[in-house]
Amino acid sequence: MEQHLQSLLELEVPVIVQIADKVATVGEVTSLQPGVIIEFPKQASQDLTILVNNATIGSGQAVKVGENFGVRIRSVETPANRIEAMGGTA
User: Fold this and answer.
1) Which H or E element spans position 28?
2) Distance (Å, whole) CA 38 – CA 19
3) Mean pLDDT calculated for residue range 31-58
């Protein structure tokens, strides 16, 4: 049984960090071109949303890790809620 659990824990799932979202008209989307700036109704200092399987599992602050982007976790859902977000039942 323990080996089966270990196999499940090694499965890979996509983790998405969402900066912000907004609704745009079809006309606005079709007129996008390089150089255009899309403004979002969220302050740069606000936390980013962390999602798995399009379900929110936490939030955090943007950080720089060497030359890469990272997120410092500020809040996270319970393990049961995170498992549910991945399509399981807790």
Assistant:
1) helix 26-30
2) 12
3) 94
